[in-house]
Write a structure and sequence with these properties.
191 residues; mainly alpha
Length: 191
């Protein structure tokens, strides 16, 4: 009896593992003590770390692009999109929590979307990867908010649910847009 493979490629497997890591990180924050979160907000640790993590993310993309010359253009496009996305978030009148939702669920939806696209490229029948990844990541955020209702030091917030779905859509459309821009640039360079 032949065992059915769960993944169509090594890349897909890695994308799903990273999506699981992000999922676990999001849900782990549910159970961090309220006092720890209050301490971090008072000392502006969360706000400052968001900025530095953003810089690390851009540097990681740049160095990954330098290492892999075949995908260098894709990494530069991602770095540019991340920079614009990050600057827009910093200018918006959002709380640190709302900004973190944008990063968390945006990243989760990108990983899900890329895994589904990889699966489709390898011949699997994947219908509506854009909608599936937005709805999956957004629903994970919805469940996160519902669980918060039962934790004494957390607050259920309907606005956060909207941010989770919005961030998921931003993430997927960013990834989708980068793919389109990459094709445009590659075709432009061939002419």
């Amino acid at each position: 009896m032949k065992r059915k493979k769960n993944f169509t490629s090594e890349r897909e497997r890695k994308l799903w593992i990273w999506a699981l890591v992000v999922f676990i990180a999001i849900y782990a924050t549910l159970f961090l003590g309220g006092q720890l979160i209050d301490f971090m907000v008072e000392r502006r640790i969360i706000e400052q770390s968001t900025f530095y993590l953003f810089l690390v993310l851009i540097l990681a993309f740049i160095f990954s692009g330098l290492k892999n010359s075949g995908k260098r253009l894709e990494y530069w496009i991602y770095a540019g999109v991340i920079a614009v996305y990050g600057m827009a978030l910093l200018r918006m009148d959002l709380t640190t929590t709302e900004r973190s939702h944008m990063f968390e669920y945006g990243l989760l939806s990108i990983l899900i979307y890329e895994a589904l696209i990889e699966r489709r490229l390898n011949g699997a029948n994947v219908k509506f990867p854009v909608l599936t990844s937005i709805m999956t990541a957004g629903t994970i955020g919805l469940l996160d908010e519902c669980i918060q209702h039962f934790i004494s030091y957390r607050v259920f917030d309907i606005v956060d649910i909207g941010f989770n779905y919005l961030a998921s859509a931003f993430g997927v459309f960013t990834s989708f847009g980068v793919r389109k821009l990459q094709r445009i640039f590659v075709n432009w360079n061939r002419k």
